[in-house]
């Protein structure tokens, strides 16, 4: 284990019940060790490269799928503005 004092630990049952919480922690930089029958089972670590970019309007604005030619690229401009 690289840095045991920096790693959070969670039982697999708890992970299943609160998956969004634990994956959000890992995405924010936490190292999470998942245990099964009180033994280390897997580790979740954040992805450093090519992370998911979530814009400021996520969940507030719905986008409709349209062809690129129909929107004349306007949706690309909107996504670029949203991600800042």
**Tally of DSSP β-strands:** 3
Question: H/E series, N to C?
Answer: EHHEEHH
Number of helices: 4
Spans of at least 5 consecutive residues with low confidence = none
How is the biggest beta sheet arranged? 3 strands, mixed
Helical residue percent? 25-40%
Distance between the termini: 37 Å
Q: Averaging pLDDT over every residue, what do you get?
A: 79
Radius of gyration, Cα only, in angstroms? 19 Å
Assess the beta-strand content as a share of residues: 15-25%
Strand order of the largest sheet: 1-2-3
Coarse shape:
elongated
Write up what this structure looks like.
With 84 residues, this protein is α+β, with helices and mostly antiparallel strands. Helix content is 35%, strand content 20%. It contains 4 helices and 3 strands. Strands 1-2-3 form a 3-stranded mixed β-sheet. A hairpin with a 2-residue loop joins strand 2 (31-36) and strand 3. The protein starts with 6 loop residues before the first strand and ends with a helix.
């Amino acid at each position: 284990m690289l840095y045991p004092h920096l790693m959070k630990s969670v039982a697999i049952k708890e992970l299943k019940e609160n998956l969004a919480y634990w994956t959000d922690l890992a995405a924010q930089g936490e190292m999470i060790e998942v245990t099964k029958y009180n033994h280390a089972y897997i580790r979740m670590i954040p992805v450093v490269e090519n992370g998911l970019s979530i814009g400021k309007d996520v969940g507030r604005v719905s986008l409709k799928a349209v062809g690129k030619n129909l929107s004349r690229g306007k949706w690309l401009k909107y996504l670029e503005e949203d991600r800042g």
